[in-house]
């Protein structure tokens, strides 16, 4: 019989929050545990391009009023489609028509990660317990408890969902180490600037690549929507990446945010073409943040003995490089799928996690493969599943 105990969710990222929205719509009790102390604790990251599958998953979960607000917050970009530039000369090196990237109405749809997280959290505030770092779980005779870094335990839940990202302790425990996230050695920096700084690009999705460095190339990816390019109060984001060894943090400390990260981005782009310089000269230094380019097992999401009361979603089970822009879209598909299965079962029931994992492995393995193979060309990364380091 379905249980009245809450579904416990570790992490309050995009996948976790969307799953919570699904549970709320189904009147299934839940609790979220987030290690940060608030949503403003860390930089919120770059702009996400939403695929047809991602948008369908989100719309299937959000209530109509929240979906309307979410859709209104998305940028709908038509214009030039995808264009690649040489960072030094400013010349065009590649162009792809909009239809191949569009997801709805012939438009490329994107939204800032921070805006997406804020909207997904709407109405969930009372269910989030802040400053709760989940380090594992223990099964009970009729449920499961989350274990916290301070030595305490959660209330007993009917099920635990690990959605705490690439460092997920829940993923490691439930899979007995089968789930691995490889450190590709490539690094990046997230940045934001007033929309007016993007006028030199115009509307569209862009990649700007600098291949002049002997140690390897560096690039940025950005999505510029129309309508806001004359409003200095609106910010657009860009994502910088570099081949292994190109982007380095002081003392190898990739937790650095703010001016120190911004200064490195400015130094790397000081010789770029004038049309791209405003993105860095006018950047909001407080929003700059390093990130590691990681990837789950390239051969696909591994199998592990199913634990009926514990499963994982999002980056905890299938971390991807930014190549292809499909990581977040795959994560929200997890949320919609698991939420639907729980709704159909009336809450936790034996077999739910097994069915979710069976279906998830198919589309997630395909997505990881696409992301990794694309990244081998773009970023020069190479993973050996036997010898490459893990995070």
Automatic annotation (TrEMBL):
Keyword Signal in record: yes
Name this protein carries in UniProt: Zeaxanthin epoxidase, chloroplastic
Keyword Oxidoreductase annotated: yes
Signal peptide: 1-20
Superkingdom, taxonomy of origin: Eukaryota
Domain FAD-binding: residue ranges: 308-366
Keywords assigned by UniProt, alphabetized: FAD, Flavoprotein, Monooxygenase, Oxidoreductase, Signal
InterPro entries: FAD-bd, FAD/NAD-bd_sf
Source organism of the structure: Echria macrotheca
Entry's Gene Ontology molecular function annotations: FAD binding; monooxygenase activity
Database matches in Pfam families: FAD_binding_3
Cofactors, names only: FAD
